[in-house]
Amino acid sequence: MDVKKIEEDLDRLVKNCIQVVNVEELKVKLIRYYREGKPIKAKLGLDPTAPDIHLGHTIVLRKLRDFQYMGDEVILIIGDFTGLIGDPSGRNVTRKPLSRDEIEKNAETYRQQIFKILDPAKTRVEYNSTWLRELGSDGFIRLCSRFTVSQILQRDDFSTRLKENKPISVHELIYPIAQAYDSVMIEADVELGGTDQTFNLLLGRELQREYQQEPQICMTLPILEGLDGVEKMSKSLGNYIGVTESPKEIFGKVMSISDQLMFRYYALLTGVPDTELETWKSMISDNKLNPMELKTRLARTLIEQFYDAAEAEQAEIEFKHIFSERKLPEEMPVSFYNCEDQKIWIIKLIMQEGMVSSQSEVRRLIKQGGVYYKIISDFENVPAELPQSEMERVPDANFEVDACAPMALILKVGKKSFRLIKFINQPYPA
RNA sequence: GGGGAGGUACCCAAGUGGACAAAGGGGGCAGACUGUAAAUCUGUUGCCGAAGGCUUCAGAGGUUCGAAUCCUCUCCUCCCCA
């Protein structure tokens, strides 16, 4: 048995983890894997209500992939049972219970997104309703009887909410129990989760002991900060980068993070070693390296994880084009406008194009100088490399565009919204 | 079951009869600047509009010339007692 290899594997698995309970047991399992060929079962529970995977999730997924590289089995558990009940965590927004169909749809979405990172061949997907429904209410009550209320209330967010006089629904209390039971049913060796899952993971450990199973290793990974650098990354906060977003969007979002946050993303989302990061940091403080270049590189690296190098490069070119060289995008949404009368009120046009949600907002943007336009004499002949400086600022809310076929109008509304409007002079085909 | 405290805009939070489309902070958006959509500074942040108007303070009614503010009922959250 190769002792050195085991140490290496162990190092790799433990890297980035906030906590591993406990490393010794993990080592035992590793040794047994190499000696007897018994793969480690690594478990991750998924909530079927939020099928959009973002960078925050990928930290855990990348860790799971480490297990897969070593030949281990990854078991994803779709928490459809709890999903069927409906989870009103949060305060007054009671989420409606999901139907079978919706859950199935969400699960499918999960699969598609998750396999951008995991190896489908080494991944097993299970639904916890399989065993939880079978348990029946009497079985479930018996299961609950293994825990005490104060035990459950130890969970951080429960006790916090209790202290802050915030509501806790009864069924929220039983979620961790259901999750723990999942571990028993699949006889998990390891369960992974964000640090917010620590309690749930540990509960699984305890329940397994009750069932005379070898307790699972609990690995908690950091919760990724969102684009704002403060709140955790989440869809509802809108500070996230989804794995299905277009390369262009991902690139832009990465470039918008602070220099400080960039290093955090490097550490957690890429394979760049810490020593390298330290070097970069000192180079930046010595002014030998422009942080922007590192950020560009980060953006490309991340895009490559979900797409490929060519698309990453394309996104970079596009970004530089628009924001560094301040040119118009190579491709922008095109629409046609049938102009009968000569003058078109700019606000009406922008509203019709759906570029802004309310008229007041358009007025605001214009007043603040955030709306630009450029008239092209022939829409068949829109110049490719047009600098934004050639555009003119819309002076006031009453501004009217004087254009008709075969002209075209380029609009820039706000920082990122572009539109090419081609004017035609004929009735739409019936 | 009894008693008490609350529900204000995207979020937090002030406001307890008129000067309130509603302080302050966060977030968002825009401008300047730049190294980038970093940082910083400034402005802006219900809707429609030329002025002006319209709809908002958990919901429904009511009192009043006038209500986020007072009254009644309903819904929701929390605390204490049982």
UniProtKB/TrEMBL annotation:
It is found in: Cytoplasm. PROSITE patterns: AA_TRNA_LIGASE_I. Keywords: Aminoacyl-tRNA synthetase, ATP-binding, Cytoplasm, Ligase, Nucleotide-binding, Protein biosynthesis, RNA-binding. It comes from the Bacteria. InterPro entries: aa-tRNA-synth_I_CS, aa-tRNA-synth_Ic, Rossmann-like_a/b/a_fold, Tyr-tRNA-ligase, Tyr-tRNA-ligase_bac-type, Tyr-tRNA-ligase_bac_2. It is an enzyme of class 6 (ligase). GO terms for molecular function: ATP binding; RNA binding; tyrosine-tRNA ligase activity. GO terms for biological process: tyrosyl-tRNA aminoacylation. Homodimer. This is Tyrosine--tRNA ligase. The lineage of its organism: Bacteria, Candidatus Fischeribacteriota.
